Amino acid sequence: MNPVIDLLNSHRSIRRFSAREVPQALVEELVVAGQSASTSSFIQGCTVIQVGDAEHRKLLAAYAGDQPYVEKAPLFLVFCADMQRHRLACDMHGAEMKSGYTEQFITTTVDCALFAQNLMIAAESVGLGGVFIGGIRNRIKEVAELLRLPELVYPVFGMCLGYPDQAPVLRPRLPLPVVLKQERYDDEGDRERIAEYDHAVREYYMTRTGGKKDTAWSEQISGMLGRESRPHMLAFLQRRGFLLK
Ligand SMILES: Cc1cc2nc3c(=O)[nH]c(=O)nc-3n(C[C@H](O)[C@H](O)[C@H](O)COP(=O)(O)O)c2cc1C
Fold it and tell me: Which residue among 26, 73, 75, 142 has the highest number of C-beta atoms inside a 10 angstrom radius?
């Protein structure tokens, strides 16, 4: 392999951090690495909000469904899909921006994902670790208010970062034939492949929890997707000016 692929393949989320601070110069370097990601039509539709205030961090941890690392991580970033600066750009040319398109929701959200993943990999390359926090969407309205987000901006996810104080085992991924298809979509044999993968995931959880969690991947997914999934999202996004047409 090569060192970049080795780094990518050794990713695991980190949720416990040492007290060592992350210097602000390094934070800025990581954000620049995030900015270097590909961006749809050069829109650069991601804004990052660094949250250091202790009270705000406590609130964000609660909004995320009581995830203590949101409060405790040395660094917490919120990645926001942002069409506001594009309105400014249109304004600078006397044009009125046509907003509300689903396409714009997709491009800005994808931009955030690429930006954040670049940033995460850059962080891991210098010995930091972290975890994405989609949990902030549990109480997305409160998060948007706390961060004073204007219309046409929404928080996609947060990210905890810091120097790791744990070394979790790698979480096994789906077998390659389930995710890599040739020429056309063909899921024949995937049921059996997933059943086999379930054994690996069960073993992973048993190891990670010292025998307490005995759950297969398909079981976890069927439990999760058998419930509602943040049904407040559509109305929230529409109030923010997204997904209107
Ligand atoms: C968009 C996104 C949101 C996530 N939200 C959370 C979260 O709120 N809390 C958490 O502990 N992990 C969260 N994760 C981490 C995933 O659970 C984790 O990446 C996945 O289980 C695979 O594990 P690994 O990253 O250790 O390989 C999130 C990951 C992504 C990509």
Answer: 73
Q: What is the pLDDT of residues 62-87, one digit of tens each?
A: 999 999 999 999 999 999 999 999 99
> Which residue is closest in CA terms to ligand 1's atom 31?
132
- The domain in which residue 35 lies consists of 3-168+228-239
Based on the fold, state whether residues 96 and 185 are members of the same structural domain.
no
The count of structural domains within the chain is 2
Residues 85 and 142 occupy one common structural domain: yes
The CB of 163 under 6 Å from ligand 1? The reply is no
Mutate to test the pocket of ligand 1, among 17, 72, 132 (most ligand atoms within 8 A of CB): 132
For 139-154, how does the pLDDT look when each residue is reduced to its tens digit (9 = 90+)?
999 999 999 999 999 9
Q: How far is the CA of 161 from the centre of ligand 1 (A)?
A: 13
Q: Are residues 108 and 150 in the same domain?
A: yes
Q: Are residues 162 and 182 in the same domain?
A: no
97: CA distance to ligand 1 center in Å?
Answer: 35
In-domain check, residue 221: no
Counting residues of the chain whose pLDDT is more than 70, the rounded percentage is 100
Cβ partners under 8 Å of residue 214, min gap 6? 202, 205, 206
How far is it, in rounded angstroms, from Cα 139 to Cα 120?
24
Query: Is residue 16 in contact with ligand 1, taking CB distance under 6 Å?
Result: no
**Pairs from 20-23 (Cβ < 8 Å, separation ≥ 24):** 20/74, 20/162, 20/163, 21/74, 22/74, 22/75, 22/128, 22/161, 22/162, 22/163
Q: Is 134 in the pocket of ligand 1 (CB under 6 A)?
A: yes
Q: Could you tell me the pTM of the whole model?
A: 0.98
> Within this chain, do residues 78 and 189 fall inside the same structural domain, yes or no?
no
* pLDDT at residue 1, as a whole number: 74
- The verdict on residue 147 lying in a domain is yes
